Amino acid sequence: MESTVEEPTPRRGRGRGWLAVLMAGVLAGGAAGVLALRPSTDGPSAEATAPAVAPRDLLAGLPARVVPPPALADLPPDRAVGPAAFLYHVEQPGGFDEATGPLRQRDIHLVTRAGQQFRVGRTPATVGPVNQSLSPDGRWLAARRGGQWWIRDLTDTTERAVPTGYELWRWSTDSAAVVLAELSQSSRGFAVLSVRDGSLRRLDVAATPLTDAVTLVDGRHLVLVDLTPVAPGARARPELAVTVRDIDTAATRTVPVLRPGQLGPGESFTAIVPLVDGGGTPARVWVQVGRPDLQPTDLPEGMPAIPASSLLGVDVRSGEPAGRIDLAPVATGSAEVYEGIVGADVVLTRWTRERTELVAVEPGAGSRRVLTTLPALTRVLVPGRQW
């Protein structure tokens, strides 16, 4: 298979923890290689007849440690490989090259639920797996090449083209559809593409460039958030709500995510690098809040000062709070960073100087369990998310 080079798709900012800040400034202008997935008319292999995997089970049963294999094969175009658990890319220590900067390329690994690994493209050394995305159930792999998105069925050999001019934006929680965006300097339009039959439905949604589609619940309820600053020059806000729109009836309702009195003293949601994400079963929306005025002290030499932050969630259907998850701040060379929602769990990566841990958190209870460990300086992309 050939690979092509793509510029990273313009996206909203994402807070990626101390490692991202450590490498701040090298994201802009990076280039990402995306593997050219070819359609096939061959019949499905044995893997294609396997039953679908529920998102809650997608990350269950991973090996205790995932490491790059000695020889990494390309994702085969002529046979199914089964649902994927996650994508990852390893940035080797000292990988930044002054001559090439972030353009130095690393392999993007696809890890199947069965434990196999395949190369699905290349990405800049200091950037995560850009221009790639997995559906919440791990069945569909979306990859961008030639200025266009393509969606490959990993339980089969077919792929579907996303109409030209649209960017992949958000997956539906049931993995049956994907939200697409038309971007311009003055407006943002949304559409819904069925991955099963390829039908496209443009949505009549009044949106600005700062309107974000957070998720699509079961293919019908679009969750939107307006990130326009609350006042000229405002950098933070103490309250935040999302709008849930029924794309069939156009009925809307507002769901508060951050309520008055919910935040602690000095704590706020910042619109500088906003993190608002939704999905899972049951469908929830999570926002990241913090204390920008409190900076950690007594850090190891060379470690950037990143303030502590927390995740606050809300159940989309009931509007009830889904819990609070306090992320471990940079302390002795480690930090926790939000990665996404898989099933009912919130998934984090925990970075240390020795390894990367993929961690699942049960909302409400707050209990953590390590799903697997990976090499140090690993960027992980879980199902339902996109860089």
From TrEMBL:
It comes from the Bacteria. The chain crosses the membrane at residues 18-37. SUPFAM superfamilies: DPP6 N-terminal domain-like. Keywords: Membrane, Transmembrane, Transmembrane helix. This is Lipoprotein LpqB-like beta-propeller protein. It comes from Micromonospora palomenae.
